[in-house]
User: Fold these one by one.
Assistant:
Number 1:
Amino acid sequence: MRRCFYFLLFTFYFSPKIHAQIIENAGDYMTAMTNAQTEMDQKYMVYISASAHSRRAKKIEKLRTQALESIDNAKYKTMGLPKYKGDNSLRQASIDYIQFCYRIFNEDYSKIVNMEEIAEQSVDQMQAYLLLEEKASEKLQEASENLSKAEKQFAGKYGVNLVDTKSELTDKMGTAGMVNNYCDRIYILFFKCNWEDGELFHALNGHKLNDAEQARNSLIAFSKEGLESLKLDSLRTFQGNPALAAGCREALLFYGAMAQNDIPKLTDFYLKEENFDKIKKSLEAKGNNKTKEDVDQYNKAVKDINYSVNNFNQLNQELNKRRQEVAQDWEKAEKTFRDDVIPYYKAK
């Protein structure tokens, strides 16, 4: 299960329009602070890029470990820099930011990796899983904004002319964050139906018709709810790309139509099967006392059940094949979408 966090990177380029040696030194000092975090930012983006293209966080744990090491290195590099003319504000803000990133990466990410094991067991657990990711992203974004404020305050205090120019890395980080948020909102619509579909067929296979009917009604509701959500402007497309929403829509239409039209045919067979068993047991119980009417009723029931068995098997096979195709089509749509909008990133 793919899921990842992001934080904003603020890359400042220092204008050469510096009118005093002290101001120039302040710019160099800020550049040194930024350079101390370069490897950390790159390793983090490598992890984000891999996460964006993988549905299983455990498969890329090595990259998370490498990112943690680079964050730790950034901390020691920053701690090794001196105060600027006795002013420790920027240095401390940078250290606080790096340490905060380490805690999120080490603790929150670890919880998310562990939670991945149970996230797909229910809709509530999946929503909790996605919420945990969202909150971690918000924390990191807030921490990055706080560092940006400290940088601007330092620059203002010492007359450094900042040119806020986004780098390629910054652009990719921002895109990754927006894409992950968008994909999460689409994914939960698909997951609700996919999960309820599993519950439905589990109930049918166990001949639990009341549970199956409850799951069928929930599947219809989830399908309608999801299709309505996909009409929202915020979900219809991502930067003009409608592919993921279209893929989800196709899946939801299938689940809704199947639950509405096909499942009643399957449950009807189980009811006929129960009725046939009752007729058979009743006939056997009468022994030699059975009448011609009893035998005729039984023979008719045999024909009906044989006809129903053939129809049931054919429909069940068709639905199982189509359900598998729908799940595969969704995975393909999601992978294609992510590959299109999030380039793979490799540290230089």
Note: Residues 200 and 212 are 5 Å apart (CA to CA).
Number 2:
Amino acid sequence: MFAALLAVLTLSSPDSGVLPVPVSLPDKAPILHEGLPRSGEATPAPKKRVFVIGVAFQSRGGSQGIALEQVVLGSPADRAGFTVGTIIVEIEGQSTLGRSAEDCTRMVREAGGTVSLKYYDPLTFKLRTRTLQKDWITPPN
């Protein structure tokens, strides 16, 4: 029976009244991911947020302390008025004299939710102490 049906379908002629429909395909086929169309560009990974005061230290402290190499815009340190070049003398009561940037970063990290900094005020060159509350920020590139 199947063979007879196949023979009938094969021998039948197409309807002469049907015209082909023109189809245009896109120049570039969409990229599919799990059945959903995606653009051809990669999606960047979400940036990781960190719980910090938002500073980076110079590689090594000098005879007065360690200078700030970077202050992240909008960070707790930036909001408190710290600027690049500010000399940090103590972190949580521990001297920064001769310490590396890694040591100072570790001291800040281990301080908990607040960090006490003793520093030279860049405007008056007087020693001041300030306690900063850490905050969640997205580090710059």
Note: The CA atoms of residues 67 and 86 lie 5 Å apart.
